[in-house]
Design a protein that fits this description.
With 361 residues, the chain is α/β, with parallel strands linked by helices. It folds into 3 domains: 71 residues, Nucleic acid-binding proteins (OB fold (Dihydrolipoamide Acetyltransferase, E2P), Beta Barrel); 148 residues, P-loop containing nucleotide triphosphate hydrolases (Rossmann fold, 3-Layer(aba) Sandwich); 103 residues, no CATH class. It has 10 helices and 13 strands. The strands form 3 sheets. A 6-stranded mixed beta sheet has the order 10-9-8-11-13-12, with helices on both faces. Strands 1-2-3-5-4 form a 5-stranded mixed beta barrel. A two-stranded antiparallel ribbon has the order 6-7. The radius of gyration is 24 Å and the shape is globular. The protein starts with a helix and ends in a 12-residue tail after the last helix. 28% of the residues are buried. The N terminus and C terminus are likely disordered. It binds guanosine-5'-diphosphate, magnesium ion and zinc ion. Zinc ion binds next to loops.
């Protein structure tokens, strides 16, 4: 059979990219097309390469030239993404499952807040899940549940050891692509093992499934749920990154702030809720001090990035490569210095709105 006949005979083959390694893509085929093979190991058509189109884990793709015996194929097209995360790099994620343990490791509200803020930053829905119920008393469990309600979350409490609470998790995972995030040791691998019994991720290991050496600890892979949908563990991404968050966006990452702003407004549109007059957010709520701490941190990070970018632009212009001369802000000092509070305040006023990588919410 010629190539033309193979391609032309049936509807285009579509599938989901489960894993990416070097220039190979593991693609899970959809629906009826699975009868010939469940998965194909694919290359990427040179046309995509020329267009600079990267194939990501989670991408929906059109596959051509299937070789059913060798289980090979070629990715000819990437369908439009509805979301795109950069840390970890996964496309078409529907939600984030943020997993913490009620004990071992100890549940720390400040650390939990960092993870929550990082997750909120994506604008994706968050499922908050507390594992290791078996290690705590009913009173402790209730206290955490009430505590989270005050923050604006409704956690699902489970134990992967005893199986209690797992039914409540099943429904939201169905038919969705879910990224699991959380500290090491909270039970992420145990959870994937529970929902996808035949994969046997090694519990208590940092680098998953394939062992060390063959894959980096950042190997990202989607696992298909029997009820439909996909789960992604995130080895190597266990530290929340506030690097890309803008000071002006931070407030939106707190449900308490969103709720306050839905009821009344601050006098100033660009209120940072620090010490401005007639602020609707400043007040006696639990995480307000966390907000202020994180605001100071992201403001400093943002100022650093702006200074570095300006410095890079200056170096480029000096060397005269590419002849692109743009009006970049001039730096007063050549070497990087820690910005003063006043500089930080000024930077706050000059924030340019970078677009979130997430394409729609
Ligand atoms: N007591 C208890 N231990 C658990 C539970 N879930 C997982 N563990 C243990 O916690 C440790 C870390 O689990 P793992 O799934 O590797 O966590 P990960 O690092 O987040 O992938 C292992 O020793 C598990 O056996 C639970 O519900 N209760
Ligand atoms: Mg693990
Ligand atoms: Zn305010």
């Amino acid at each position: 059979m010629s190539k033309q006949e193979q391609v032309g005979a049936t509807a285009p083959l579509t599938g989901t990219v489960l894993a990416v390694q070097a220039n190979f893509y593991q693609v899970q085929l959809q629906g009826e097309q699975r009868k010939s093979a469940e998965q194909l190991l694919c290359t990427r058509r040179s046309r995509l390469k020329k267009l600079g189109q990267q194939v990501m884990v989670g991408d929906q793709v059109i596959v051509e030239e299937p070789d059913w015996l060798g289980k090979r194929g070629a990715i000819a097209n990437i369908l439009p993404r509805h979301s795109q995360l950069s840390r970890p790099p996964i496309a078409n994620v529907n939600q984030i499952l943020l997993m913490f343990a009620l004990a071992e490791p100890k549940l720390d509200p400040q650390q939990l807040t960092r993870f929550l803020v990082t997750a909120e930053q994506t604008h994706l829905p968050i499922i908050l899940c507390f594992n290791k119920r078996d290690l705590t008393s009913y009173t402790t469990q209730r206290a955490w549940r009430d505590h989270m309600k005050q923050w604006g979350y409704d956690p699902i409490l489970i134990s992967l050891q005893t199986g209690v609470g797992l039914k409540a998790l099943e429904r939201p995972l169905r038919q969705s692509t879910t990224v699991i995030s959380g500290l090491s040791g909270v039970g992420k691998s145990s959870l994937i093992n529970h929902f996808i019994p035949d994969i046997n991720l090694r519990v208590g290991q940092v680098s998953e499934r394939w062992g060390q050496g063959r894959h980096t600890t950042r190997h990202i892979e989607l696992f298909e749920l029997t009820s439909g949908g996909f789960l992604a563990d995130t080895p190597g991404f266990n530290q929340p990154s506030l690097e890309t968050i803008l000071p002006t966006q931070l407030g939106h990452c707190f449900p308490e702030i969103r709720q306050r702003l839905s009821q009344s407004q601050c006098q100033f549109k660009d209120c940072q809720h620090i010490d401005e007059p007639n602020c609707a957010v400043r007040g006696d709520w639990e995480r307000y001090p966390y907000y202020l701490n994180l605001l100071a941190e992201v403001t400093e990070e943002h100022a650093k990035r702006q200074m570095m970018a300006a410095s890079e632009a200056r170096t480029k212009r000096k060397s005269g490569k590419r002849g692109q001369v743009q009006d970049e802000p001039k730096l007063e000092t050549k070497r990087y210095r820690r910005p003063s509070r006043r500089q930080l305040q000024q930077n706050l006023q000059n924030i340019d709105f970078e677009h979130l990588e997430h394409l729609s919410s």
